[in-house]
Amino acid sequence: MKLVTFVSDYKMTVDTLDRLKPEKLGIILVQNGVYHATTKENGKPSSMLNYSANYYVLQEDLETRGLSAANVIDSKVKVIKFGDIVDLMFNEYDKTAWL
Amino acid sequence: MGKLTIGCFASLVGSTNLDFAVKLSAAAMEKGHKVDLWVSGNGTMISIKDQRAFKDYSSLEKPLKELMAKGLNVTACEACAESRGYHADHTLEGVKRFSMDWYLGSAFDADRLLHIGGE
Amino acid sequence: MATTKLGFVVTRPGYKSENPKLALTHAIASQSVEIYLKDGDIVTADIAFVGDGVLNCLKDQKAVENYDLNSTESHIKMSLLLDLNVLVCREDLDRFGLSEKDIVIDAPEFGAEVEVKVVPYSEISQMMEEMNHLLFF
Taking CA atoms, what residue in A is nearest to C122? Predict the structure, then answer.
């Protein structure tokens, strides 16, 4: 399956992402999930960025938290808007998961 | 164009999940997709009319009305609403109330489904 | 005639969160969805308990006695009565030191003929592949 997951928290208590093995995985960082794209702890980026996935972060949720594209620490994370989410859901992936 | 069904089970106040659901609905409709929004559990809070808007709390009545006028289909879980004291006579105009099978019925012909769980 | 398959994936324990109960009650609603569909069309619901969600499956829950609430156990049993496919992840049970004797497996008192299936995660993953839509709770 082609699965796009929405990660909305910074601290995850479930290991669902570790176990999902879709043919194609997209990770959209939204709400407090955006900190995975911008924050290092003890100098290390979030392990959330270690999956073999296409990464996206929602611009509105970055800006709401005083962040911007300039704060995104890994160039593989693409900053997107709500309209882009719609296009990803309909054109690139066939299933969704909100974690 | 396709059909998107969104289920949101999170509270209007204390979570921005419903805000996300409404913004995503708007974006999908702008691209010509049909959108069904199902609210259940604490998410039924969005179905109450005459909520006073404070800047410290999410308030979605205005955008919801605007989207419903453009065709957004919003349905609240009747049992979840009733259990919280949200009765039919205090439901936002245009919001329907049905049992949980409505959500599954909407999912039947949805091209995409996004289920946003509750707290 | 068409079939839409929904996979309900429960990842969290219950009671403090309403999520697991809502997963089960919505899955059970697949039995009455035909009022919204054309003749012959159906929606199926498979349920999987994974991660901390397997803790929902412990038996002898006394939610009615203590909180006057239907237990998650009773909702699982109702799901079995309605012949829903209920899967529980074996690796997660092992992680908690639990086995089949600790969880709800059947519901003969409800008249249920099917049983909960304790399966490796790979089978739950396969189930998720086969579904049209996934709902994580």
Answer: A19
